[in-house]
Amino acid sequence: MAAETRRAGAATTALLLALLVQAPGTRAVTDDMLKVACSDMTPRHTGYQPENEIGVPCPFRLTVDPSTPVVPGNMVNLTLWSLGMATPFKGFMVQARDVNGRVLGTFLPECWNETRHHMISCPNGDEPYNVAVQSNNKYKSKETFTWVAPLSLEGFIRFKYTVVLNYEHYWTNQETEDIPVAKISQEEFNMKKSINPQYYIYKLYIQNCFS
Protein backbone atom coordinates (compact mmCIF):
# COMPACT_ATOMS: atom_id res chain seq x y z
CA MET A 1 0.00 0.00 0.00
CA ALA A 2 2.81 2.42 0.89
CA ALA A 3 4.56 1.70 -2.41
CA GLU A 4 1.32 2.30 -4.33
CA THR A 5 0.81 5.59 -2.47
CA ARG A 6 4.34 6.73 -3.36
CA ARG A 7 3.79 5.81 -7.01
CA ALA A 8 0.49 7.69 -7.07
CA GLY A 9 2.14 10.71 -5.47
CA ALA A 10 4.95 10.66 -8.01
CA ALA A 11 2.46 10.41 -10.88
CA THR A 12 0.45 13.34 -9.52
CA THR A 13 3.61 15.42 -9.15
CA ALA A 14 4.67 14.59 -12.72
CA LEU A 15 1.25 15.67 -14.01
CA LEU A 16 1.37 18.94 -12.07
CA LEU A 17 4.83 19.71 -13.42
CA ALA A 18 3.72 18.91 -16.96
CA LEU A 19 0.78 21.29 -16.65
CA LEU A 20 3.03 24.01 -15.30
CA VAL A 21 5.59 23.54 -18.05
CA GLN A 22 2.98 23.49 -20.81
CA ALA A 23 1.10 26.59 -19.68
CA PRO A 24 -0.25 28.37 -22.78
CA GLY A 25 1.61 31.30 -24.26
CA THR A 26 2.22 33.03 -27.55
CA ARG A 27 5.24 31.04 -28.68
CA ALA A 28 7.53 32.96 -31.03
CA VAL A 29 9.02 29.72 -32.37
CA THR A 30 8.36 26.06 -31.70
CA ASP A 31 10.32 24.11 -29.12
CA ASP A 32 11.66 21.84 -31.87
CA MET A 33 13.12 24.89 -33.59
CA LEU A 34 14.70 26.01 -30.33
CA LYS A 35 16.17 22.57 -29.62
CA VAL A 36 18.18 22.76 -32.84
CA ALA A 37 20.33 25.31 -31.01
CA CYS A 38 20.80 23.22 -27.85
CA SER A 39 24.48 22.50 -28.46
CA ASP A 40 25.83 25.63 -30.16
CA MET A 41 23.23 28.08 -28.79
CA THR A 42 23.02 29.72 -32.22
CA PRO A 43 19.68 30.63 -33.84
CA ARG A 44 19.23 29.52 -37.45
CA HIS A 45 18.64 33.00 -38.83
CA THR A 46 19.48 32.55 -42.49
CA GLY A 47 21.63 35.31 -43.92
CA TYR A 48 22.70 36.79 -40.58
CA GLN A 49 25.57 36.03 -38.24
CA PRO A 50 25.89 36.72 -34.50
CA GLU A 51 26.79 40.29 -33.63
CA ASN A 52 29.59 39.10 -31.33
CA GLU A 53 31.29 37.42 -34.31
CA ILE A 54 31.66 40.79 -36.01
CA GLY A 55 32.91 42.58 -32.91
CA VAL A 56 29.72 44.16 -31.59
CA PRO A 57 29.68 44.04 -27.75
CA CYS A 58 26.70 42.33 -26.18
CA PRO A 59 24.35 44.87 -24.53
CA PHE A 60 22.88 42.21 -22.23
CA ARG A 61 24.11 40.48 -19.07
CA LEU A 62 23.16 37.41 -17.09
CA THR A 63 23.84 37.79 -13.38
CA VAL A 64 23.65 35.31 -10.53
CA ASP A 65 22.05 36.43 -7.28
CA PRO A 66 24.90 36.39 -4.71
CA SER A 67 22.38 35.54 -1.99
CA THR A 68 21.73 32.16 -3.64
CA PRO A 69 25.13 30.43 -3.95
CA VAL A 70 25.40 27.29 -6.04
CA VAL A 71 24.70 24.44 -3.61
CA PRO A 72 23.89 20.93 -4.88
CA GLY A 73 20.12 20.44 -4.80
CA ASN A 74 19.38 24.10 -4.05
CA MET A 75 17.82 26.93 -6.05
CA VAL A 76 19.85 29.66 -7.75
CA ASN A 77 18.26 32.92 -8.92
CA LEU A 78 19.35 34.47 -12.22
CA THR A 79 18.52 37.71 -14.01
CA LEU A 80 18.96 38.44 -17.70
CA TRP A 81 18.89 42.18 -18.27
CA SER A 82 19.62 44.93 -20.72
CA LEU A 83 22.49 47.26 -19.81
CA GLY A 84 20.92 50.51 -18.74
CA MET A 85 17.55 48.96 -19.63
CA ALA A 86 18.07 50.73 -22.96
CA THR A 87 17.98 47.84 -25.44
CA PRO A 88 15.06 45.42 -25.16
CA PHE A 89 15.27 41.86 -26.42
CA LYS A 90 12.80 39.35 -27.80
CA GLY A 91 14.38 35.93 -27.41
CA PHE A 92 16.92 34.08 -25.30
CA MET A 93 18.34 30.72 -24.33
CA VAL A 94 19.94 30.16 -20.92
CA GLN A 95 21.87 27.07 -19.82
CA ALA A 96 24.26 25.99 -17.08
CA ARG A 97 27.27 23.95 -18.20
CA ASP A 98 30.10 22.08 -16.55
CA VAL A 99 33.75 22.18 -17.61
CA ASN A 100 33.04 19.46 -20.19
CA GLY A 101 30.22 21.41 -21.82
CA ARG A 102 27.37 19.26 -20.49
CA VAL A 103 24.09 21.04 -19.81
CA LEU A 104 23.25 20.90 -16.11
CA GLY A 105 20.36 21.25 -13.70
CA THR A 106 16.67 22.04 -14.00
CA PHE A 107 14.88 25.36 -14.43
CA LEU A 108 11.70 25.83 -12.40
CA PRO A 109 8.42 26.97 -13.98
CA GLU A 110 7.49 30.61 -13.59
CA CYS A 111 5.39 31.55 -10.60
CA TRP A 112 1.72 32.45 -10.91
CA ASN A 113 1.43 30.64 -14.25
CA GLU A 114 3.09 33.50 -16.14
CA THR A 115 4.03 32.89 -19.75
CA ARG A 116 7.15 35.00 -20.28
CA HIS A 117 9.45 32.00 -20.53
CA HIS A 118 9.36 28.23 -20.30
CA MET A 119 11.73 25.28 -20.18
CA ILE A 120 12.84 22.74 -22.74
CA SER A 121 14.88 19.56 -22.32
CA CYS A 122 18.05 19.56 -24.39
CA PRO A 123 19.62 16.16 -25.14
CA ASN A 124 23.16 17.28 -24.24
CA GLY A 125 22.30 17.09 -20.54
CA ASP A 126 21.01 14.53 -18.03
CA GLU A 127 18.30 16.47 -16.17
CA PRO A 128 14.89 17.39 -17.64
CA TYR A 129 13.91 21.00 -18.35
CA ASN A 130 17.56 22.03 -18.39
CA VAL A 131 17.21 25.12 -20.60
CA ALA A 132 15.14 28.31 -20.27
CA VAL A 133 13.80 29.97 -23.44
CA GLN A 134 11.34 32.73 -24.32
CA SER A 135 7.61 32.01 -24.57
CA ASN A 136 6.65 34.98 -26.73
CA ASN A 137 8.15 37.48 -29.16
CA LYS A 138 7.35 40.58 -27.14
CA TYR A 139 10.14 42.98 -26.28
CA LYS A 140 11.43 42.77 -22.71
CA SER A 141 14.27 44.43 -20.80
CA LYS A 142 14.63 41.94 -17.94
CA GLU A 143 13.86 38.29 -17.29
CA THR A 144 14.35 36.29 -14.09
CA PHE A 145 14.87 32.54 -13.70
CA THR A 146 15.23 29.99 -10.93
CA TRP A 147 17.60 27.10 -11.57
CA VAL A 148 18.13 24.01 -9.43
CA ALA A 149 21.67 22.63 -9.15
CA PRO A 150 22.10 18.86 -9.64
CA LEU A 151 22.67 16.95 -6.43
CA SER A 152 25.91 15.41 -7.74
CA LEU A 153 27.38 18.76 -8.82
CA GLU A 154 31.02 19.52 -7.94
CA GLY A 155 33.76 21.93 -8.94
CA PHE A 156 32.78 24.92 -11.08
CA ILE A 157 30.01 25.81 -13.51
CA ARG A 158 29.23 28.61 -15.93
CA PHE A 159 25.93 29.91 -17.17
CA LYS A 160 25.77 30.46 -20.92
CA TYR A 161 23.23 32.55 -22.75
CA THR A 162 22.17 33.71 -26.18
CA VAL A 163 20.02 36.83 -26.61
CA VAL A 164 18.00 37.83 -29.67
CA LEU A 165 17.19 41.48 -30.28
CA ASN A 166 15.42 40.65 -33.54
CA TYR A 167 15.90 38.35 -36.51
CA GLU A 168 18.86 40.31 -37.84
CA HIS A 169 20.66 41.08 -34.57
CA TYR A 170 21.56 38.54 -31.89
CA TRP A 171 24.45 37.59 -29.59
CA THR A 172 25.42 33.97 -28.96
CA ASN A 173 27.36 31.96 -26.37
CA GLN A 174 27.78 34.71 -23.82
CA GLU A 175 29.11 33.43 -20.47
CA THR A 176 29.28 34.26 -16.81
CA GLU A 177 32.51 33.84 -14.88
CA ASP A 178 33.29 30.45 -13.37
CA ILE A 179 31.06 29.91 -10.35
CA PRO A 180 32.27 27.62 -7.54
CA VAL A 181 29.97 24.89 -6.29
CA ALA A 182 29.65 24.63 -2.52
CA LYS A 183 30.19 21.29 -0.82
CA ILE A 184 27.46 19.65 1.23
CA SER A 185 27.68 17.08 3.99
CA GLN A 186 27.01 13.41 3.40
CA GLU A 187 23.95 13.72 5.64
CA GLU A 188 22.49 16.52 3.51
CA PHE A 189 23.26 14.60 0.34
CA ASN A 190 21.54 11.47 1.66
CA MET A 191 18.50 13.44 2.79
CA LYS A 192 18.03 15.11 -0.60
CA LYS A 193 18.77 11.87 -2.44
CA SER A 194 16.04 10.03 -0.52
CA ILE A 195 13.28 12.23 -2.00
CA ASN A 196 11.60 11.34 -5.29
CA PRO A 197 13.31 13.66 -7.85
CA GLN A 198 10.07 14.92 -9.41
CA TYR A 199 8.52 15.55 -6.03
CA TYR A 200 11.70 17.30 -4.88
CA ILE A 201 11.53 19.73 -7.82
CA TYR A 202 7.83 20.32 -7.18
CA LYS A 203 8.54 21.10 -3.51
CA LEU A 204 11.16 23.65 -4.58
CA TYR A 205 8.64 25.24 -6.95
CA ILE A 206 6.14 25.59 -4.11
CA GLN A 207 8.83 27.00 -1.83
CA ASN A 208 9.98 29.45 -4.49
CA CYS A 209 6.55 30.74 -5.42
CA PHE A 210 4.40 30.46 -2.32
CA SER A 211 6.61 30.74 0.76
Automatic annotation (TrEMBL):
CDD domains: Reeler (cd08544). InterPro entries: Ferric-chelate_Red/DefProt, Reeler_dom, Reeler_sf. Keywords: Signal. It comes from the Eukaryota. It holds the Pfam family Reeler. Residues 1-28 form the signal peptide. GO terms for cellular component: membrane. Residues 23-197 form the Reelin domain. This is Defense protein l(2)34Fc. It comes from Melanaphis sacchari.
